[in-house]
Amino acid sequence: MLSFFFRKNLYDGWDNLMLLAVPNLILSALTFGGGALMFAGRDYLALWIVTASVLVCAYSVAALAWAEVSVKLADGMPASLKDFFTAVPSCLADGLKYAGTLLAASAVTGIGGAYYFRKNATIVGLMAGSAFCWVSL
């Protein structure tokens, strides 16, 4: 009976490790590919914007899919890697909405920061820019 519990814990441990490692490896590969693409096209701003947008969308969908799988783990139910990949299509719409919100907030912060922290900014402009960045964070 004791060997059964050891085997069960070993298999559950490997399942949980794979559930943690594989999505992280996929996102790490996407990040590496995106970083390589951004480095190769460092003179093209449009390429940076598109690559960053794709990465934010991928991370948002993966985070929501991982959250759905984590609910099972928190309830004490077994979760597998298959559950993560089956949760991705149901999280696609919400993940893209979340990514759009993050990208819009980033664009507003970038435009506002460029306006308030320009080269000839006054102390009032710097204070207003600091308040703007604090609120946007």
Structure description:
- The protein is mainly α and 137 residues long.
- The protein has helices at residues 2-40, 45-74, 81-116, 123-136.
- The longest helix has 39 residues, at 2-40.
- It is elongated, with a radius of gyration of 21 Å.
| Continuous helix count | 4
Shape: elongated
Rounded radius of gyration (Å):
21 Å
Distance between the termini: 54 Å
Helix fraction by DSSP (H/I, runs of at least 4): over 70%
What's the main sheet like? Answer: none
Number of strands: 0
Task: Lay out the secondary structure.
Layout: H1 2-40, H2 45-74, H3 81-116, H4 123-136
Summarize the structure.
The chain is mainly alpha-helical and about 140 residues long. It has helices at about 1-40, 45-75, 80-115, 125-135.
What descriptors fit this protein?
137 residues; 4 helices; 0% strand; elongated
